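Handout, page 2. Input:
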Amino acid sequence: MSNMSYCRFENTLNDLDDCNDALNDMLEAGEGFKGLSDSEKGALERMYNLMEEFRATMDVVADHEEDREWAEQEAREEEGN
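Output:
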C-alpha cells in the first residue's frame, strides 16, 4: 500500500528505522543475512541502491535551496540600498 502524501516521509522513516534495527539485530546475532529469503536479500540490495540515489537527489535539493537562499539574500540587500 502506498503512503499518503501528507505522511509519506514520516511513515517511510519509521519503516526504514525498523529495517535498520533488524539489520543490526542480525549482525549482532552473527547471522549476517542468512535469515533473509532471496527476495528479501534482493529487496535489501534495491533499497541500498535507492538510498544512494536518494542521497544524490537530496544533495541536488540542498544545492538548489542554497542557491535560492543566496538569491533571496541578494534581493534583500539590493532592496536595502
